[in-house]
Every structure is written in structure tokens, then in C-alpha cells.
Amino acid sequence: CLATLIIMLVGDTYTLINYVSFINYLCYGVTIIGLIVSRWKKPKIFRPIKVNLLIPITYLAFWAFLLIFSLYSEPVVCGVGLIIILTGVPVFFLGVYWRNKPKCVNRLIESMTCWGQKLCFVVYPQCGSAEEE
């Protein structure tokens, strides 16, 4: 988010749209791959909507062609898009993966979460720390 704000302040909107569209297409493809893997590894679980696997496989083939073409035609834009995605890795490790955080880090994350919820007018069912539960 911070990288996107910086790019938005420095660059033009067209460039930002190119970065975000590459990120979106990459995420769509990873989602379809997850769908196919889920159907292959867990075929018996309940699915409210089940389509023939030919549809996601066909989509994935077109997706791969468009993604490879994008990487070939605009490698800098795709590289910056990947860098934008990778800026979330430290946030993931600090917020999710690191289980035994000091209390000060937990309080900081909780206060940032509450601040973001207030800023975006998000109502969370319970406002309190996870340690109280």
C-alpha cells in the first residue's frame, strides 16, 4: 500500500494502472491454479458451484499466454508489479507468521488495525485483543 501511494504521488495514473493490472492478472492465475489443485487433491469436499475442469484449464492457458506476452513486451512494468507484491512479504511475516511477538508489537499491530478500521468506517464485531479471549 505504501509503495502504491509513493508511485501514485511520483508517477502518472496510466503507469499505476499498468502495475495494478499486472498484479491482478497474476493473482487471477494463482487463484485458478489453486482451484485446480484443490479439485485434484480434495475432490470430495462440498462445493456450492462446480464446473467442468476444462473451463479453468482453458482460462489458465490463455492467462499464461497473456502473462508471458506481458513479461516479454513490458518487463519493467511487470518487474515493478512484482516488487509491489513482494513489499507485502515483510508485513506477512511480522503480522501473521511470527507467532511469539512481544506485547509491544501486538499492541502496535492492534492499534494500527483499529485505526485503519476507524479510518475506513469498518465495524468489527469485537474490539479487544486476542489475548483476552
From TrEMBL:
What residue ranges are annotated as transmembrane?
A: 16-37, 49-73, 79-98
Q: Does the keyword Electron transport apply?
A: no
Q: What is this protein called in UniProt?
A: AAA1 protein
Q: Name one GO biological process term.
A: D-serine transmembrane transport
Keyword line: Membrane, Transmembrane, Transmembrane helix
The record ties this protein, via InterPro entries, to: AminoAcid_Transporter
According to the record, the signal peptide region is none
Molecular function as annotated in GO: L-amino acid transmembrane transporter activity; neutral L-amino acid transmembrane transporter activity
Entry-linked Gene3D superfamilies:
Amino acid/polyamine transporter I (1.20.1740.10)
